[in-house]
Design brief:
The protein has 266 residues and is α/β, with parallel strands linked by helices. The protein is 45% helix and 15% strand. Helix 8 crosses helix 9.
């Protein structure tokens, strides 16, 4: 079991949605938090809510994962807050709304930078500390779409598939060092992620996905993520009926291939 109390936890994507819900629940369990996202004002609001609950061990570290040249210094700064980082939760992410044919290459690169390259860069910079102390835990917030593709999500799905390939490989390499890897695959969660989804030209979608609205709450999702961390689970699917898509593709691939093109995402 992995304990949360007194663990130094670096959480990206902490300004809203699943990340914000995780911040409150991890703080309530006694974690020492480092909260990161691009929007510093929103991070301060999350930190203040934690402090009003009596939490004092909390730090703010604004970060833009597209700025690859500063990520090493950000990782070094994160370590300096408490002298170590025990758990890293990669919660930052951006989705899309647009076909592969229409989407600009620059938009696809931005999605890969935020969802994939940012996560692996921060992990690489923390990894030597973990190998030295023979302990560490990286938690990757992927997606159900990390297990199969869907219309109008080509770059998003690609970025999440890449996370699985990379972190499954990393698990095989560092397990002997007592470094754990947990991949979380949420389905539809009621968060504002679709508002910030990128259109083919890179503008914000600015609409709430009806599937998102009808999804599980961010609080329920966060609770299940924390349980997965505590149990050292390798891969976890969180959601409603959409989770069945993982098993449908695995055991009935022809049927799955017939169903997916008929699904028009909102």
């Amino acid at each position: 079991m992995t304990k949360i109390q007194d663990q130094v936890i670096w959480l990206t994507g902490a300004s809203s949605g699943i990340g914000e819900a995780l911040a409150y629940q991890l703080a309530a369990k006694g974690g020492k938090l480092i909260l990161s996202a691009r929007r510093e004002a929103q991070l301060q609001e999350v930190a203040q809510k934690c402090r009003r609950q009596g939490v004092t061990e909390i730090q703010i570290l604004p970060i833009d994962l597209t700025q690859s040249e500063i990520l090493r210094s950000k990782a070094e700064q994160a370590v300096k807050f408490y002298g170590k980082v025990d758990i890293v939760i990669h919660g930052s992410g951006i989705t899309q709304r647009g076909t592969a044919a229409q989407t600009f290459l620059g938009v696809e690169r931005e999605i890969m930078e935020v969802n994939f390259f940012g996560a692996i860069a921060l992990t690489k910079f923390i990894l030597p500390q973990w190998q030295q102390k023979q302990s560490g835990h990286v938690v990757v917030i992927s997606s159900i779409v990390g297990k199969f593709g869907a219309a109008q999500r080509s770059a998003y799905a690609a970025s999440k598939h890449a996370l699985h390939g990379y972190f499954d490989s990393l698990r095989a390499e560092v397990g002997q060092d007592n470094i754990k890897v947990t991949i979380i695959c949420p389905g539809y969660v009621n968060t504002p992620i679709s508002l910030n989804a990128l259109t083919p030209t890179g503008t914000k979608f600015n609409k709430m996905n009806i599937n998102q609205v009808n999804g599980i709450s961010a609080e329920v999702c966060a609770m299940k993520i924390i349980k997965a961390i505590e149990k050292n689970q390798q891969e976890v699917y969180i959601g409603k009926m959409e989770v069945l898509g993982v098993y449908l593709k695995r055991f009935f691939p022809r049927l799955f291939a017939q169903i997916v093109p008929k699904f028009v995402p909102n």
